[in-house]
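Subject: Re: docking follow-up (guanosine-5'-triphosphate)

Dear J.,

Thanks for your patience while I sorted out the input files. As discussed at Tuesday's group meeting, I've set up the holo structure prediction with guanosine-5'-triphosphate included as the bound ligand rather than trying to dock it afterwards. The sequence and the ligand SMILES I used are pasted below, so you can double-check that they match what you have on your end before we go further.
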Amino acid sequence: MKSGIILAGGEAKRAGGMEKYHFSYNGETFIDRLLFTLKESVDEIIIVARDESHCQRFVDIQGVKIVSDIRKGTGPVGGLHAGIKAASGDTLFAVACDMPFVNKNVIDRLFELINDYEAVIPCWNNSEKDMIEPLHAVYKKEALEKYLASHKSLSLREMVKSIRSYYLNVDMLRDIDPKLMTFVNINHLEDLERLKMGDFL
Ligand SMILES: Nc1nc2c(ncn2[C@@H]2O[C@H](COP(=O)(O)OP(=O)(O)OP(=O)(O)O)[C@@H](O)[C@H]2O)c(=O)[nH]1
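The structure tokens for the complex came back this morning:
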């Protein structure tokens, strides 16, 4: 069984404390766009809010589990921790809520490639960016549980290092997402303006 975990907490300092999941593109909120896409690829969806009162913002959404951080203030990895505890799937797609163009075919490809690995993490190996995409990645729940249970202070980077990951060069996804729009993420209000101007398209 596959789970999708949407991380919706955090402080969004770079976006002036706004709720990034509620940003919109083409009249659709980011969270609605994500839910629409994830429903096609996973068997259950979990939204991880920052705390109980933040959970209330999502209660009208049908057919999803809503949980909040247990280890509060620990960033995205804390959100993952709470999401994993609630997940019934053995494999999961973890995604940030600030990604408006997440692509179903890309998610399916990441799930297909996991085989005996503990994670499939897209990575940029070129001049555009030199980074990995752990918040648009597929993980085996068991591997994350092991890390999270045995570490008092949580670090996404450390977690990723400690598991057996397949780092998938993003160029391998261009056949299904030529401009790699799936990885666009909106962290700053200026990014949102650029999105509205069509800069990312
Ligand atoms: N549940 C939960 N989600 C988080 C937490 N921190 C970040 N996120 C989510 O993880 C994703 C990536 O977050 P970042 O952009 O790194 O951090 P942020 O707090 O949203 O933004 P900045 O304050 O600008 O760094 C986003 O979808 C956030 O909503 C957290 O502590 N708990």
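A couple of observations from a first look. Residues 59 and 66 are 8 Å apart (CA to CA). DSSP finds seven helices and nine strands in the chain.

Let me know if you'd like me to rerun anything.

Best regards,
T.
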